[in-house]
Amino acid sequence: MIYPIVAYGDTVLKKMAEDISQDDTSFDLKKLVADMYETMYNAHGVGLAAPQIGLSLRLFVIDADLMHDSIKGMKKAFINPQIIQETGEAWGYEEGCLSIPDVRDKVYRKPDIIVRYFDENWQEKEEAFTGLTARVIQHEYDHIQGVLFTDHLSMMKKTLWKGRLNNITKGNIRQDYPMRFTK
Question: Is 142 strand, coil or helix?
């Protein structure tokens, strides 16, 4: 099932997401993960967090293989993740977001991270990631923390993007994937 992507301006994108309980039977976790991948692929993304489909849950999926030919085996679901370490000198890279279409700007992030999380089979993992994969994870992790990539921009950059962001909030954009706008 393809969900509409929640657009910039919706309050769910600015809330700290809730942990998922392994005992929660209110939804089928494996189906939700599969639906999130389908939604992400339909929108041509490399990552998608549950708040971006309107669910305030600590869950995101990535497929960093889509980002660069040299990245292989980086299709993963992260449940209740915690970034426990970020190291290295922050480096800039132009980021975008499915919830903020046609807005891209340079964000500085540390290149090396260690993440503790559960996979979709509730297996606990602790893994190190680097480079572009680390960046995708940090971007999606921000979503479950209620942070958008635009929050990392300077006031001057935010001012430059203000008109576009207002248009996204109002739904005055054209996009080739389904979106949900605030009313």
Answer: helix
